[in-house]
Design goal:
- The chain is of the alpha+beta class and 753 residues long.
- It folds into five domains: 83 residues; 205 residues, Alpha-Beta Plaits, CATH 3.30.70; 190 residues, P-loop containing nucleotide triphosphate hydrolases (Rossmann fold); 70 residues, no CATH class; 68 residues, Winged helix-like DNA-binding domain superfamily/Winged helix DNA-binding domain (Arc Repressor Mutant, subunit A), CATH 1.10.10.
- Helices cover 37% and strands 18% of the residues.
- The chain is built from 27 helices and 28 strands.
- Helix 19 packs antiparallel against helix 23 and helix 24 crosses helix 25.
- The protein is elongated.
């Protein structure tokens, strides 16, 4: 009961006009107030706003009859009525960034004003009144000269004593009526027929076929009628103006309402109904409760230039608001967006917001995005699992300290069993105690995933209360929405990650593969597959490229692995020998094996020897990688060299890999060819082809605005301008004109001469 009082139902009543309610609805408001713990006096004061039906003492008497029941009328009744009349709760409910479909429900969107917020705009009655001129202006605004116009001046009384219009006339064109009005001397009855002042007169706002005044007789669906009699005339006028409705004619009815003839310009009846439904829904949301009986295109509206019960039915304005339905639709879509307002730097200067804390020290902040790109077999998934564990345990990842917290790993590629086993294997290989397993959640979606634009809302809903500091998505090719080479489609795709970051307050980390073809000559940020949006959108990009291992390094790694295995055996079976052994003896696999032979039990030594081939094979399977990065929030770091010692990556702290070339920078004739002798014709051809591919890659990478200079290409490739000119000369796809490199005419024509 107190909860409802806290919602200030008395304020909600300001949005509800008792005169607009039925008797049952009026009683419902009273029941809801009593159920919420209010006194009858609030209901009584509010009811007095309906002077025509209010009777002193009736509220108190009726209040006593409201007894409790199994299904009472609650405060929700009042909230519902208030919402229908423009009330908006004081909370933000951000909408999805999309255009509203006709079948969508209009929620907190499309609200420009409200019944309470709108300003009153007075409507003075015209003193010097020219009825014929006013009606002529109305007809000229709405109709073409050859349009048939429907109108009604004759009425009859129904059983309730209300004046009801007849079917009227529809056999005269706008041109004919205008000609007659120009000669009538303000005698409207002489043109349209005499009308009864107690009832007024009506006119149809859409053109007809001259055969009748029903919907099927409407020839064009130009206009719709917006009418509401719930609010004061001045407030109605204020809301109509603030909504910027494309009003062709605004007419005072001579009663409680304004008749706004709104441009909808529908191509057919079906579309007309859709547009009118949308129009009425938007009006309702802005505090103007519309009479939905007016939604038919053949509906009668009040005719300006006539009298009604001693009041003038007059033309208030023409052509106000926006110029067309299309302009208004764009406007109403845009003014209610969820974009932030402009911010003054002067106001923020002395009160700067706090930066998000780092998730990965000197690489990524919490709430930001990071992409890891690399070719297949780089162990990207293992790297992401390593990161998940490092965050959960608050440890280092590839030499960078991670913040400690909860993490969600979204598995899109592996079956559940394989994924869970990988986590355990990586934990063991990292030699970490599994102290914070409760901080790692896994969402296994293999075989049931959806495109990212549909997956993101579901992820957000499930993760809302989990307080993750990181969400890791592996891999994104499984959830890509649209063409990955389309910049605009990929911008929409990447926006889904922003939604996850913003609404969950966590970082989003995801991985993607390198593009196909030669990677030589490309910068790290240009290697990820698809549109350049991928590389430029995240706050941090880490790119993995393979290093070409020499035979000497492989031998050195084998020696180290055997020495480590020997040390482990001695630690288990002869620790005293290990303590007395010289350091040099433990760095040579020959000396280390001799120590094992001399000091291990024979059976143990023989079993150990049988493991040698396994150790050697494991070493041969190792790969080496260079991790480069492009960071938005932090300074660029020196590239890291990593060993992928299945199933984990290990940073090369010794510097063995420092001087190795990346495989992508090697020419094909160099890759895997350790004993290079005299170059053959095939070798020269391969070398030339790679240089050409690197040149074309550089051209397309630099060609952002249609102009690529020789200087640009030289800087990109790290070669001299002279070398660039020589290579372009040998490349038939490119030409140089005035220091500008362009596609040749042959290439522009699709490769044909």
């Amino acid at each position: 009961m107190d909860t409802y009082k806290d919602n200030n139902l008395d304020e909600l009543l300001d949005y509800i006009d008792p005169a607009s309610l039925t008797y049952q609805e009026w009683c419902g408001v009273g029941m809801a107030l009593k159920d919420a713990g209010y006194d009858y006096s609030l209901w009584d004061v509010w009811s007095q706003r309906d002077a025509a039906r209010y009777h002193k003492g009736e509220c108190e008497k009726k209040w006593r009859t409201f007894a409790g029941c199994e299904h009472p009328v609650t405060a929700g009744t009042i909230v519902h009525l208030a919402l229908e009349n423009g009330y908006r709760p004081q909370y933000s409910n951000k909408k999805e960034s999309h255009a509203l479909n006709w079948d969508d429900t209009i929620g907190e969107d499309y609200v420009v004003t409200s019944r309470k917020a709108a300003q009153d705009i007075p409507i003075p009655e015209p003193e010097a009144w020219n009825p014929a001129q006013e009606l002529s202006q109305y007809i000229e605004t709405l109709f073409e000269a050859d349009d048939f116009v429907g109108y009604v001046t004759e009425t009859w009384k129904n059983k309730d004593g209300k004046y009801v219009p007849t079917s009227g006339c529809c056999d005269r064109t706008a041109g004919q009526l205008l000609a007659a009005l120009s000669k009538c001397g303000d005698d409207i009855g002489a043109v349209f027929g005499d009308y009864m002042e107690a009832a007024g007169a009506w006119i149809r706002f859409n053109p007809l076929d001259g055969k009748g005044g029903k919907n099927e007789n409407v020839t064009e669906y130009r206009f719709a009628l917006v009418e509401s009699d719930v609010l004061d005339i001045e407030r109605q006028n204020g809301i109509l103006h603030e909504m910027q409705l494309p009003i062709a004619c605004l007419v005072y009815s001579g009663g409680k309402s304004l008749h706004a003839i709104v441009r909808v310009d529908a191509p057919n009846y079906e579309e007309y109904r859709k547009r009118v439904d949308f129009l009425y829904a938007v009006c309702d949301k802005n505090g103007l409760k519309v009479d939905r009986q007016n939604r038919n295109p053949s509906r009668l509206s009040r005719m300006p230039g006539v009298m009604r019960n001693g009041k003038k039915q007059f033309l208030v304005a023409t052509n106000i608001g926006l110029g067309s339905w299309a302009e208004w639709k764009d406007y109403i879509d845009s003014v209610t967006d969820d974009l932030p307002e402009f911010e003054s730097m002067a106001e923020a200067w002395e009160n700067m917001p706090e930066l998000s804390p780092p998730l990965i020290e000197n690489v990524l902040r919490q709430g930001h995005k990071m992409l890891i790109a690399g070719p297949s077999k780089a162990g990207k998934s293992y790297a992401l699992i390593e990161m998940s564990i490092a965050i959960a345990e608050g440890r280092q990842w590839l030499g960078w300290q991670c913040a400690k917290g909860r993490v969600l790993y979204v598995n899109l590629e592996l079956d559940r069993a394989s994924c869970l086993h990988r986590f355990r294997d990586v934990y063991q290989a990292m030699k970490l105690p599994a102290a914070n397993l409760q901080s790692i959640d896994i969402w296994n979606l293999r075989g049931v995933t959806e495109p990212m634009d549909r997956l993101a809302p579901k992820l957000i809903r499930r993760a809302k209360k989990k307080q993750y500091i990181a969400v890791i998505i592996d891999p994104i090719y499984k959830v890509i929405t649209g063409d990955e080479n389309s910049a605009d489609q990929m911008a929409h795709f990447c926006n889904q990650f922003d939604k996850v970051c913003t609404q969950l307050g966590c970082a989003v980390i995801y991985c993607h593969h390198h593009s196909k073809g030669a990677q030589g000559g490309k910068r790290s940020m240009d290697r990820a597959s698809g549109s350049g949006v991928f590389a430029r959108d995240p706050d941090a990009l880490l790119d993995m490229t393979e290093l070409e291992l020499s035979e000497d390094i492989r031998k050195q790694e084998t020696n180290t692995a055997i020495c480590d295995a020997c040390v482990e055996q001695l630690r288990r079976h002869a620790p005293a020998v290990l303590a007395d052994a010289s350091p040099d003896a433990l760095l040579s696999h020959v000396e280390a094996l001799k120590l094992c032979q001399d000091n291990l039990p024979p059976a143990v030594y023989e079993a150990f020897l049988s493991e040698m081939e396994t150790i050697k094979r494991t070493v041969r399977q190792r790969t080496a990688w260079r991790l480069d990065g492009t960071l938005r929030e932090f300074p660029k770091f020196e590239p890291k060299n990593l060993w992928f010692r299945y199933p984990v990556h290990v940073e090369d702290t010794i510097g063995v890999l420092k001087d190795l070339q990346m495989e992508v920078d090697l020419m094909p004739y160099q890759r895997g060819n350790k004993k290079r002798g005299k170059k053959t014709k095939e070798t020269y051809a391969a070398q030339k082809a790679d240089k050409k591919a690197a040149l074309l890659n550089a051209f397309h990478a630099c060609n952002l605005d249609g102009a690529v200079t020789v200087d640009d290409m030289a800087e990109y490739l790290g070669i001299s301008e002279k070398t660039v000119r020589r290579r372009v000369k040998d490349c038939e796809e490119l030409i140089i004109e005035n220091n500008s490199i362009q596609l040749s005419k042959m290439e522009k024509n699709g490769g044909t001469k």
